[in-house]
Amino acid sequence: MLCRRSLLGVTTKCLRLSSTQQHRSGQPECDQAIGLLPAYSDADRLKILKTINESSMNQIANYDITKARATKLQNWKNRHGPLQELSDILYVEGFGLKVTTKFFKSLLAPPSSGSAQVGENRPKTARVAPFITPAMDEGQRSRIVSAVGVRIGVTSVSWARLKIGSNEAPCLLTHWQHHELNDKKLHLSELSRRCLYVSHQIPVADCYVMESPQMAQASSNPGSIDQQNVNIQKAQVSAIMSFSLMARSDGDENKTNNVYYMRRFLSARLFNHMVGTERVSSEDTILAMMRTHYNVEHQIPETEPPLKLHKQIDFPADLRLEFSQQERYQRELLGQALLLSLAFTRLVLQQDPQSIASVSRNSKNSSPSRAT
């Protein structure tokens, strides 16, 4: 029995040793990339190894590397110890030849003004991707005074038209409507006829805003989940409505774009309607907008700070009544159409700094605040 326990102990030590050695010699694809690493002088090699081995995860993340890769590198060091050679980093998950070369280059770059400790506490610059497609020039942005948000579903189309307020004036909701297509499997000829009818109901505006449709990615597996999530009829409705609305600008001498596509879920992110990857109800936000002092008979006492009216919406009484008489799912779709138009107004037309910051990539680290 004693000999058996001793044998198990020796076997366990051998397994631990072999698991460490596998990371050094068990990945032939990494061995091929080792010879492709740039040649570094002894001084540069020692500087890179010293920086990686003696820096914390947060310090490493300040260089040209993602936070996820910095975490994986730190976990690898905790398990296998410090790096002995530059090529050891290729055994860390996520570190290929291109990523490693860029990372090493940033480690050797001369430090900018300020020490590493200052850089560790300095927030990274927000990377703001384009909000709309196609891009809009400054001249056209200044000329737009009305916008229609068009929310397209599989069996319905909803829209809301906003008249953009000047200076400190609020936006005015002028039209608000929902139309049912009533069938999920319509022939293209019938679907085109119904969509053209809906297009004639949408009021004229300087521009029309839709959410970017989900695109089917190229896949060798036609039955993949990415392919199944793309609804054919919804894509057809988006294409027909886009063409019909674009045709309204044929008589425009400037030949400028009048249909814009906003990034998916951008309006939901702006108004905190995203839980994970799911969009939640917008009705509470719409009702809160209706309760502002600009839309009620009793004014807020003068002791309270004044609200910025250019961020508010004026809801006419007849459109409020129309909203309250709709079914719950119809109110939700009307709300999404309104928020789509409002998000376009704040992010693109007014370029509100607070709204832009709330949807920027580095805003995830900040405390969430509901846009109203």
From TrEMBL:
Cited InterPro entries: TEFM (IPR039150)
Q: Which domain of life is it from?
A: Eukaryota
GO CC annotation? mitochondrial nucleoid
Q: What GO terms in the biological process aspect are recorded for it?
A: transcription elongation by mitochondrial RNA polymerase
**GO MF annotation list:** transcription elongation factor activity
Name of this chain's protein: RE67859p
Organism this protein belongs to: Drosophila melanogaster
**Coding gene?**
Dmel\CG14450
